[in-house]
Amino acid sequence: MSTDRSTRFVPFSYGFRPFFLLAGIYAVFGVLSWLWVYRSGLMPLGSVPSQFWHGHEMLYGFVAAAIAGFMLTAVPSWTGSRGYAGKPLQLLVFLWLAGRLAFLFAGSLPFWLLAAIELAFVPALMLILAPSLLRTWSRNTPLLLVLLLFWAGDAMFMLGLANSETVMSARGLRVGINLVLVLLTVIGGRIVPAFTGNALRAHAVPVQMRSSALLDRFTIVAMLAYAIADIIAPLHSNTGWIALIAALAQCVRLSGWQGMRTLSQPIVWVLHVAYLWLPVGLALKALYLLGGFAWAAHWQHALGAGAAGTMILAVMTRASLGHTGRPLVVNRLTIAAYVLLVLAVTIRVFGAAVLSLPYQTVVLLAGGLWAAAFSLFVVVYTPVLLLPRCDGKPG
């Protein structure tokens, strides 16, 4: 008895499918779990503060899944190689799920087993991507080094956890998030102006991007300098000055991408909003370090939840449509997800100091809005990610 192709599940037919879905689900589960931990006062990692569990799972769980989905989809396009599917993809999904399950029960596992399970995923991803990236050497090949350093940050976190050295674990988290910010600067600097120009031209809007290779290189170097400074001396005044320079460079760069002309196209303006959190977060850190402004103290969430989280949602919605043969037009529920996420980050960053909300209210409200945003993503995109392309093509 034959099965209608349009209703057949194909979760492992391309890299973005399982990992975008897992990223969306874990964005909801991870934050709701954190809210429960926060309210109950539990310590999932023993003597290490519970915020470290939250930071680790958002970075090396949620963000890692999104990065995997992006790279497993982009690398075949960059290199002209076949897409990743089938058993290799299933293995990667198994390793990622094993890591999340291990951290959920971190307190009851031998440390060596927890570390072995957690640190297996990124090397496996690198082994799958390496042949294509090394065979066709290009500007994208160094992304293997980014993945290696990202894994090293996770390993540093685990080493600190093993020895109850919170300073080392905190540095491991900073290694990870700063690599993500550099990646956003490089990849975002390619896709945001490109997608914006294509969208405006498709609507017969004359457009000319204001950009320069010199500005792009300076912005990337400034972000690399900030990343190094933040990893080594996160609260030093020199790090504040570097953050200020990087914020100004990011702002000038973004201003040339014609974001205000995309307000009628949510799938495009959300990319600009995501990138905007980069200069905002950097500026907040500079203000906090150089001026001692207490209201700027939550730059971490502007950069993590704001820049990384919003860009992930923006890219996942766009890529899921484009790579399944659908028009690049988002529905109302997806637009609602964008708005809810922007509200979540805004409240998390400014709610306590600027809006005078009780801190516990800020955490719970922002977490609830974040979970609602990604819940909408899961509702809308689960069938998109699990069912075959609507144009009948493979992938």
From TrEMBL:
The chain crosses the membrane at residues 20-38, 58-77, 89-106, 112-130, 142-163, 175-193, 214-233, 239-256, 268-290, 302-321, 333-357, 363-387. Signal peptide: none annotated. Keywords: Membrane, Transmembrane, Transmembrane helix. InterPro entries: NnrS. The keyword Transcription does not apply. The keyword Transmembrane applies. It comes from the Bacteria. This is NnrS family protein. It comes from Woeseia oceani. The lineage of its organism: Bacteria, Pseudomonadati, Pseudomonadota, Gammaproteobacteria, Woeseiales.
